[in-house]
Amino acid sequence: MTNWDLNDIERVEIIRGPGSVTYGPGAIAGVINIITKTAPDVPRPELTVKYTHEYDSKMAAISYGVTKPNWEFFGHLSIAAVPDWMRRAPTRCKVHWRAVWVCRLAEFPERLGQPQSAAGVFQGFQRRTAVQGAFRFQVL
Questions:
Q1: DSSP for 76-123?
Q2: Region label for 84, one of left (φ > 0), alpha (ψ between -120 and 50) or beta (otherwise)
Q3: What's the CA gap between 136 and 21, in Å, rounded?
Q4: CB 105 within 8 A of CB 124
Q5: How many domains does the chain have?
Q6: Could you read off the pLDDT of 17-48 as tens digits, one per residue?
Q7: Each residue's pLDDT tens digit, 104-121
Q8: Is 58 contained in some domain?
Q9: In-domain check, residue 133
């Protein structure tokens, strides 16, 4: 869990039992599914600032999502700083970021030269592009 910022997680699902057919050969006893936030979950900017006195740790995070008819964008950035008391070293910092872009495209079957199906008026698909990263550094 050190690679995820908990402010970026919407929920955690635990699926008990063998799930190797669905999730691959490593899912023998169960699966832990971490669901991160998306654009509809954060319709306006969220700013979080935390200070924990016991550990002298500081954290700031901002999240924002935009949802439009054909696309959506979600971004999250957090910075945390914790003194390294165990090694008596300078403060350790961690930066976590994630961006998700979803583009929904829909074409009417008549335009594509296909007969219209009785099931629906249009056939659509969506393309999802996500990038995320985290890095750590020490303040000297």
A1: EEEEEEEEETTTTEEEEEEEEEEEEEEEEEEE-TTTTT-PPPSS-S-E
A2: beta
A3: 37
A4: yes
A5: 1
A6: 776 667 677 777 777 888 888 888 888 999 99
A7: 765 544 444 544 444 444
A8: yes
A9: yes
